[in-house]
Design brief:
homodimer; alpha/beta; Arc Repressor Mutant, subunit A; Rossmann fold; 2 domains; 7-stranded mixed β-sheet; two-stranded antiparallel sheet; 9 helices; 45% helix
Chain lengths: 207, 207
C-alpha cells in the first residue's frame, strides 16, 4: 500500500477512527455502515468514506465495514503493529504522567529509560524503570536501540538535548517543550504545546 | 474588530506567532519584517502577511511589524488580556503537572481549585491550592465563578463529570480524557489526546 499521498489532514483523523473502531470491537460490534459510524462520530458519512477509501476501501456496499479488519488495518497504517523503544527525558510530573501511562505500552511503545538531571529524582522507580542521570543518556540510547525520545524538559535546555539525541541516532522526538526543535529533515518531531492549546481554548471562549 | 471570519487554521497558528513575538520582545527587538519573521519561523513571508492581515494589517511597508504592538494585539485576540478561573479535576501526575505550570497563571489562567476522588490525594497541597474531594466540586464552581474546567481523569468517568460541569455553568473544558465529550454547542471543548499525538508520530516514523 502506498501511503505517500495521504494528506496530513487524513492522518490527523485516523487515530480517532482507530479509537472508535476499537471501542466498537470491544463492545462486540462486528460490522458498521458509514452512516452509523457517521452518527457515532459526528462526522459526515461522505467524509468517512473519503477518508477510509485512502486505505483501499474496506467497506462493501450493503455490508459496511468489518470493524475488526478496519481496526487492524488502521493500526498497521499507524505503525501500531510494530514495537518502539522510548526514553523519557525529564522525570517531573509530566514525564512521570507519561511514563505511568499503561496504554502506550499496550500499543507497542515501550519506555526503556527515564532520565533527569535532578539528583533527587535519579534512582526513583516509575513503574518498572529507574530514573537515570542525564550523563548516561547517550550510551543508553546507543546500546538499547532506542528510536523515540520524549522531551518533557524546560524549553531552555530542550534545543541542546535535541541536538544530542539526533547525534545518538534518535529518529523521532515527542516534544512537550515549548520551543521549535531544529532537527534534520529525516528526524520526526511531534509537538505537544500545551500552552498553545490553552490559548486556542481561550480564543474560542472569547469568540 | 470582527473575528468571526477568521478560520480555525489561522487560529491554530496564532499562538506560535505569539510565542515568537514574545521571545523577540524579551530580547529587545522592537520591529521585524515579514521576511525576517519568515526566516525565524520557517513559514513563508506571504503566509505571515496573509495571517496577520486578518487582524487589521499591523505591518507597515518599509517598517515591518512593531513587535510589542503585534504581540499585545495577538494576545488580546487570544483573550489573554482577560482573567480566567480554572478548576483541575484529577490530581494525578498530569493534573499536578498542569497545576504546577506557572506560565498558565502568567497568561491569566488562575487555578482556583483541584479535585480528586482519591482520599490519599485530598488535602495535598499543590503550589497554593489544596486538593478537594469531588463532592465539593459543584458548589465550588458555582460559588467561585469558575469558567474553565481541566479534565485529567480516566475516560470512564469523564463523560459523567462533563455533564455535571455543564450543569454548573462551566463554559469551557480542556479535556485530556481520551473520549469525545457530549456537550451543548455553546460549551467549548479543547481536546488534548496524547495517545493520538503518539500515533501520528508513529505513522510518520513508518512513512
Amino acid at each position: 500500500m502506498d501511503n505517500i499521498n495521504i494528506s496530513q489532514a487524513v492522518i490527523q483523523r485516523l487515530p480517532r477512527y482507530y479509537r472508535y473502531l476499537g471501542e466498537l470491537n470491544d463492545e462486540g460490534v462486528s460490522r458498521i455502515s458509514s452512516r452509523e459510524l457517521s452518527e457515532l462520530m459526528h462526522v459526515t458519512a461522505s467524509q468517512i468514506r473519503a477518508d477510509l477509501n485512502h486505505f483501499g476501501g474496506f467497506g462493501q456496499v450493503g455490508y459496511g465495514y468489518n470493524v475488526r479488519n478496519l481496526y487492524d488495518e488502521i493500526g498497521k497504517i499507524l505503525g501500531l503493529d510494530e514495537n518502539h523503544k522510548l526514553v523519557v527525558i525529564g522525570a517531573g510530573h509530566l514525564g512521570q504522567a507519561l511514563s505511568n501511562y499503561v496504554n502506550f505500552e499496550r500499543r507497542g511503545f515501550h519506555i526503556m529509560g527515564i532520565f533527569d538531571i535532578d539528583p533527587d529524582l535519579v534512582g526513583k522507580k516509575i513503574r518498572d524503570v529507574y530514573v537515570s542521570p542525564m550523563n548516561e543518556l547517550e550510551s543508553f540510547i546507543r546500546n538499547n536501540d532506542v528510536d523515540i525520545a520524549v522531551l518533557t524538559i524546560p524549553k531552555t535546555s530542550a534545543v541542546e538535548v535535541a541536538k544530542t539525541l539526533v547525534n545518538c541516532g534518535i529518529k523521532a522526538i515527542w516534544n512537550f517543550a515549548h520551543v521549535d526543535l531544529p532537527v534534520p529533515y529525516d528526524v520526526i518531531v511531534e509537538n505537544v504545546h500545551l500552552s498553545e492549546s490553552l490559548m486556542r481554548l481561550s480564543y474560542n471562549i472569547k469568540r
